[in-house]
UniProtKB/TrEMBL annotation:
Function field: Specifically methylates the cytosine at position 967 (m5C967) of 16S rRNA.
GO CC, any one term: cytoplasm
Keyword Iron-sulfur annotated: no
InterPro entries: MeTrfase_RsmB-F_NOP2_cat, MeTrfase_RsmB-F_NOP2_dom, NusB-like_sf, NusB_RsmB_TIM44, RCMT, rRNA_ssu_MeTfrase_B, RsmB-like_ferredoxin, SAM-dependent_MTases_sf
EC number per UniProt: 2.1.1.176
Record protein name field: 16S rRNA (cytosine(967)-C(5))-methyltransferase
Residues that hold S-adenosyl-L-methionine according to the record: C260, A261, A262, P263, G264, G265, K266, D283, D309, D328
EC category: transferase
Active site, UniProt feature: C381
Signal peptide: none
Amino acid sequence: MLATQRKSAADPRLIAARVLRDVLKGRSLSDLLPERLNGLDDPRDRALAQELCYGVMRGYPRLQALVGLLLKKPLKAKDQDLQALILIGLYQLSEMRVAAHAAIHETAGAAGRLGKRWGVGLINGVLRNFQRQQAVLQEKVDRQPSSRYAMPDWLLQRIEQRWPDSWQERIAALSARPPMSLRINCRQVDRGDYLERLWEQQITAEPVPHTESGLTLQRPVDVLELPGFSDGAVSVQDGGAQLAAPLLELQPGQRVLDACAAPGGKTGHMLELADDLRLTAIDLDPQRLQRVAENLQRLGLQAELQAGDAAHPQGRWAERQYDRILLDVPCSATGVMRRHPDIKYLRSEADIDRLGRLQGQILDAIWPLLKPGGLLLYATCSLLPQENEQQLEAFLQRCGDAREQPIEAGWGEPRCVGRQIAPGQHGMDGFYYARLQRVPG
């Protein structure tokens, strides 16, 4: 019995099935994976479990369409772990270089280790049926655009509208594996010197275009392999996210508010760029705020951290005015799907209106905290105009003392307000930025 328990605890397919079951119930991979992977001691098992989770969610619309063809009737809600195992098996057979017999045997066997012996035969039969009819089944699901492009219908249509001449390129970028990008801490080392340190460790990298301190690795590595990571010499951050802090034109001694700050990548970058910033970072979730504290501690930087709701400012942080405000609002995160592929499942079209209302509420609530003459940078990792330029157009119409300060840059695409980075442009995720100045009355 103990041997079976140990085998179950160290089974990457079982761990992945449990993670995916909880994603199908509405939780996110980024919340689930760090803790669940701790149950796997072997780095190869951790890598396999992570690949299965991310791969299944990256191809979820297509894989789920295949499940619909292979199952005679849908599984009950209580058997979503078996549903997850079927998705895992289909992903291995269609996308991974895993021997078919091993993929089928190990995936079906995991049902027994879940305590559902009846599921072993079901999964074995489904996967073998797929193996026999793979070409025919794939041709059938590819007739539907949402399956062919592994993208929800509603989002596929919006991306086609947004980029009518290059939507397929954007879809491909959103489904690609993301690069590992770094931000060099300019307080400790310059980019050229750090490149040499990487080369000494046989890690190949190249500068991220349009950034002063960004590097993209040729292949991902464990962060502990990065020279100086533990001492704060470098952080992991997408190149698109690195554009935010310089846009604020920070000056020493300024009072800065980082609203919706977690996990703190942009917080740290701002503190690296200017001396003696009086920076206050808030986030609605105290647990996520703890991640900001951990990141700053590793970087050797300090900020005032307070739990707070940007939509309803109250407390000490809300009684001040700020020279600069970074407003990285909650959004659909459709621009970072290559890093968070579970968004394909977790987001719905109804979320866009809800998020739009929240974004407008936060803009209205935070704007009075900006000093006259100060700058506010509105940021999202969304691709959708409703969360980006349309949100800013509406705000500028209703706020008489707000003016756009145009962003003149070589990256991204100008919008009627602000600039948009399309997914994959300059090797970056999809971000939107708009810079506003409060006009003195």
